[in-house]
Amino acid sequence: MSTEHLLKTPLHALHIELGARMVPFAGYDMPVQYPLGVMKEHQHTRDQAGLFDVSHMGQIRLVGANAAKALESLVPVDIIDLPVGMQRYAMFTNETGGILDDLMVANLGNDELFLVVNAACKDQDLAHLQKHIGDQCQIEPLFEARALLALQGPAAVTVLARLAPEVAKMTFMQFARVKLLGVDCFVSRSGYTGEDGFEISVPAANAEALARALLAEPEVEAIGLGARDSLRLEAGLCLYGHDMNTETTPIEASLLWAISKPRRADGARAGGFPGAENVFAQQQGGVGRKRIGLLPQERTPVREGAEIVNEAGEIIGSVCSGGFGPTLGGPLAMGYVDNAYIALETPLWAIVRGKKVPLLVSKMPFVPQRYYRG
Fold first, then answer.
1. Residue 247's Cα: distance from chain center in Å?
2. Does pTM top 0.85 for this prediction?
3. Which secondary-structure segment (H or E) carries 285?
4. Which residue, among 90, 78, 138, 134, has the nearest Cα to 115 in the 3D structure?
5. Are 214 and 333 within one domain?
6. In a 3-state reduction of DSSP, which class is residue 51?
7. Residue 231 in contact with residue 42, Cβ under 8 Å?
8. Does residue 1 carry a pLDDT above 80?
9. Where is the GCVT N-terminal domain (predicted)?
């Protein structure tokens, strides 16, 4: 896609002003890094606070007395009993249990749900919602109306509490309406870095003023997509389209934890989502392949698409995400391998430029998550 056809977030001019290197991402012109550089941006987020522009993500509001019940028919997650002021991770599944997208769902109260979906999937997600539940609740896309900022890192709470002291009382996955600089925002204590932090939905017209105010705080640096990727990889978090897709079920993607207990085969509201039978059969009988963590035993980074082989040289899987972990101090990867090879410490090899790079199957997250649970 040529740059003149790329979409721009409300912070685009600010990224240019800050000296960002811009790249096409999910149809948008996005900052991959700033003059600080990916390694320092990554470490700054771990040590203090990083500000990310994630306005390319899709924000959608569902309104109506049946909204929770309707949405629950499309995801393997408990939405009906999601408490007001809380957020939950969810997935849209297809008829075979494959993952159409992963998303966050928050209960705003007053029969309102707030969804954040992936940038590359937002149009198809909207169409999916309209097709299946459009007659049961009001579906309001906020794609142009709102921006989304992520303030991540151990100092995030100190910084945001200067603008709104009440955020300090929030715990991981809580969601609230908060006034920031006099503007009504939605704030969740969550993120995609493994660190404590917040995601802030702000009207598009007010996004730049809020971003500038946060960047003016001494603890905060602007952080690009490069460090966002290395941070989420160290946290063992999936990236849609890479670590899961329509050919991958939640069981294969090692996301059984995300299927709420009431929606499982023995739960109070078992099934009822697309592909439930297949997902339950896999949960019961196992799967042929699974997503696992991998630690290369040399300094060579192992990238997405690299084949994974066993001792005999037989291909038993492939890498879905890989790179260098600045906090870990070495390369790391995730991949899908045949079920016989998923035990921790299993020795495997990746083929990188025709050479075998030794790997060990590793637990995830690679770097401990530091969410604030109170």
1. 19
2. yes
3. helix 276-285
4. 90
5. no
6. strand
7. yes
8. no
9. 11-261
Cβ-contact 194, 201 below 8 angstroms: no
In which domain, by residue range, is 348 found?
288-373
| Count of domains forming the chain | 2
Q: Which of 2-6, 53-57, 121-125 has the lowest mean pLDDT?
A: 2-6
The count of residues in the chain is: 374
Q: What one-letter code names the amino acid at 63?
A: V
Average pLDDT over residues 15-30: 98
Residue with tokens 């040399």: 298
Same domain membership, residue 53 and residue 149: yes
Number of H helices, E strands in the chain: 8, 19
- 156 phi/psi in degrees, rounded to 5: -55, -40
Per the annotation, binding residues are 199
Is-contact 169 156, C-beta < 8 A?
no
List, as one string, the DSSP characters of 236-251.
T---BTTTB-TT--TT
Q: In the chain, which ranges are E strands? A: 21-25, 28-33, 49-53, 58-63, 87-93, 99-109, 112-117, 138-141, 146-152, 175-180, 183-188, 197-203, 220-222, 289-296, 307-309, 315-325, 330-338, 347-352, 355-362
Q: Which residue has the tokens 């998923």?
A: 342
Cα–Cα distance for residue pair 228/54, rounded to 1 Å:
10
Q: Averaged over 104-116, what is the pLDDT?
A: 98
Residues annotated within a binding site for substrate: 199
Stronger pLDDT, 1 or 257, i.e. the higher one? 257
Question: Using an 8 Å Cβ cutoff, are 188 and 149 in contact?
Answer: no
Instruction: Judge if 41 and 158 occupy the same domain.
Output: yes
What does the alpha-carbon distance between residue 240 and residue 255 come to, in Å, rounded to a whole number?
A: 13
Structural domain contains residue 174: yes
Per-residue model confidence as pLDDT tens digits over 145-163:
999 999 999 999 999 999 9
